[in-house]
Amino acid sequence: MPSLKTLMFMRIASLLTAGAFTVACVGLAGKSLKDLHDNRVFLPMGIQGGIDAKDVLGAMGAMLGAAGLGVICPLGVLYPTLPKTKRAGLSKPPGPPRGAGVQSPRAHVTRCSEIGHFISEFIWWKEERGGFLPFRFRFINEIMLGISCIFLLAASIAAAIICGTKSAKIWLNPPMPQAVVDGMLKATGKSVRYRDQKAFPAMIMGWLAFFFLVISLILTIMAGLHYRRVAAERRSSNGSANHHEKFSEAREDAAHA
């Protein structure tokens, strides 16, 4: 099994990656709904109408809610460690020198890696000195992350079916036959299929967020097993030390007697 510091760093990186894909999914889903709402150029002048996309709105909302829950819960567990970094005796990663120019993307990636290592080092320091979070809180964290993964899987499957096979519904006032509406769409080169909108890449981003959340869940469970094993060894060593101390005291009392 990897070391505790490695598990911490991998879990933080996985959660941040899942959060990035969740933010991208939010942006693409919002852009898709805006495009579907504003894309009425195919409607003739003087005819009122609109686009109904409630199905994809519900699927995207469920996907974003589940992904957001899966990212916020573990990060909420890590948040209390951030204001207490001075207690660990660790120095913060050095900041960029004043007056420095624009840094390259590689420098930003390196800085993010240093921050991740710093947080994981602090959590490891706390865990080695008696534990930072109670086991009950760890169980709640694992359960919430697992529930969010299940919900996100169900929402992602529904979003994949809707985005891959369905399209938005067009309504006109006064009503017109569907063949007329399809002809207007074909003549203007417009499409209301979800596969041709930003909803499709948003669905892909949701699946990527699910993938990294599952990785985070696996790493969380592995870290939990590591914590429990260390705690059991600590209790065993403390019990042996107490037993040895009591035995030594009994021998000394017997010798004095």
UniProtKB/TrEMBL annotation:
<feature type="transmembrane region" description="Helical">
    <location>
        <begin position="204"/>
        <end position="225"/>
    </location>
</feature>
<feature type="transmembrane region" description="Helical">
    <location>
        <begin position="143"/>
        <end position="162"/>
    </location>
</feature>
<feature type="region of interest" description="Disordered">
    <location>
        <begin position="238"/>
        <end position="257"/>
    </location>
</feature>
<protein>
    <submittedName>
        <fullName>Uncharacterized protein</fullName>
    </submittedName>
</protein>
<keyword id="KW-0472">Membrane</keyword>
<keyword id="KW-1133">Transmembrane helix</keyword>
<feature type="transmembrane region" description="Helical">
    <location>
        <begin position="62"/>
        <end position="82"/>
    </location>
</feature>
<keyword id="KW-0812">Transmembrane</keyword>
